[in-house]
Design brief:
By secondary structure, the chain is an all-alpha fold. 68% of the residues lie in helices and 0% in strands. The chain is elongated. Bound molecules: zinc ion.
Length: 106
């Protein structure tokens, strides 16, 4: 019935799996260095990419959790800022949106 909630639950699981993988990557990298020196510049760049992906996924996950909490409270479709209903098209495109288009843009 509530497709958006299903989509959010799925997104949440997906993000949690992704975050676990990024953390694993970091823990592996924190272990003893057994790589050739030549590999290191590439590895460092890779770490930076992973770190920024991790931060992004964390942000998104907290948004998803926040949107799910609002749905549970029965306010999932109301803009957090102005209280007007969030556009259906926007919710379809961005299931974790908690602001209407106008407030998001502001
Ligand atoms: Zn609004």
């Amino acid at each position: 019935m509530n497709d958006r909630r299903v989509a959010l639950e799925r997104l949440k699981e997906e993000l949690e799996v992704r975050l676990a993988r990024y953390r694993q990557h970091r823990e592996r990298r924190a272990g003893p260095l057994d790589k050739d020196m030549e590999d290191q510049p590439l590895e460092t760049r890779d770490d930076e990419v992973v770190a920024s992906l991790e931060a992004e996924a964390e942000d998104e996950l907290s948004q998803v959790r926040h949107a799910l909490a609002r749905i549970r409270e029965g306010r999932g479709e109301a803009c957090e800022c102005c209280g007007e209903p969030i556009e259906a098209g926007r919710l379809a495109a961005v299931p974790h949106a908690t602001l209407c288009r106008a407030c998001q843009g502001a």
